[in-house]
Amino acid sequence: MDSAAVSTFLAELPDLGSDIDDAARIDLLRTLEELKAACAGAQARVTADLDASIRASRADQGVPRNQQGRGIANQVALARRDSPFRGGRHLGMATALVHEMPRTLRLLEQGILSEWRATILVRETACLTREDRTALDFLLCADSSTLDGLGDQAVCAKVRAAAARIDAEAVVRRARKAVSDRRVTSRPAPDTMAYVSALLPVAQGVAVHATLARDADAILAAGDARTRSQIMADLLVSRVTGSTAAAERPVITVNLVISDQALLGGGCEPAHVQGYGPVPAALARQWVSDAASAESESGALLRRVYANPQSGALTATESQARCFPTGLARLIDLRDKTCRTPWCDAPIRHHDHIQSRHTGGPTTAHNGAGLCAACNYAKQGVGWNASAHQQPGKAHEIELRTPTGHRYRSTAPPLPRPLRIRGTEVTSPVERLIIHYLHAA
């Protein structure tokens, strides 16, 4: 079956379940769930075949072995409209299922095992050798009833126990290595909140939570009006920042992009916080007011940025430097906000020449792109190409071409729109205000 036949089948899916009774709808839900799993199995086979084909082709071309796989995960991610990180996971899972865990793959293709539970099997056996992994695959998946009826946690526990029985030393080594992966991350949450997560060894993680809970209980018992969860959160902030009052917090740089109308004219267009995303205009104005009234001399710094009044496209400046100067790099960061690869929303780590420098690409905003490290390295692979496009008054665009000839477009997100003057748009770019230094909110 080719992609055209699959597309025809997809076109018929919306009409399913319109003229049937509820019992039939339940049966249809089960069948569709099995279909999803079977599709995941088919994707795994196609992905593994793609990986093998590209590697074989590059080997014939004399590409060094350690470079033969470069960019394959990125192509998988683009095809699946996913981030490069997830593309790498899809590729790793596909090769493991096809080459090392055929019985797990068979259950997935039959719709008996969901894609997520197949992922658990692959993830929890990653520390084993190929032979031991295949043995565990036979132990747990040769009979479809072994995992039948188990939830995600139960499947995970069963796989871990089986892996420990097969190779206890490998499991211990994996646990020791995991300590080196400890880290703290943050990501946006709804309603202008943020998740701050810490990956710690289990003893330390439990100790941190238990200490916060113990101290929160003591404060709560003294009659504090806050909830236990609120107290724990406030204790965490005060102990990490070393301060308890807002006025005592150290000054931290927060880039806030807000239109002149939203800041000065009471407009309602959302502002944008770099590293977070859109925030309500009223809240942004409150932050600006708080920073401006702060006693610290560096409470707020205004920086003007010019944007097209119709499209919101950021204007460019040019430089003859090989590396992007600080001001130009900042402009690219504000324009692109996150990695410019489609479906990748990772933070910008590299400022890349879209047309490479050694082929004459200039160091300009038009020829610059903000990329995460993984996407920048993938773009250097054999067969990858990119070009920049920007029509007057339009947002900056990048066309990315993969080694298979597929093309993907990335358009820079617009800035907040400028102020209307006397009912008409101004003819020249309107100044925008960036609040460069704010106290941590």
TrEMBL record:
This is HNH endonuclease. It comes from the Bacteria. CDD domains: HNHc. Keywords: Endonuclease, Hydrolase, Nuclease. The keyword Hydrolase applies. Residues 327-377 form the HNH nuclease domain. SMART domains: HNHc (SM00507).
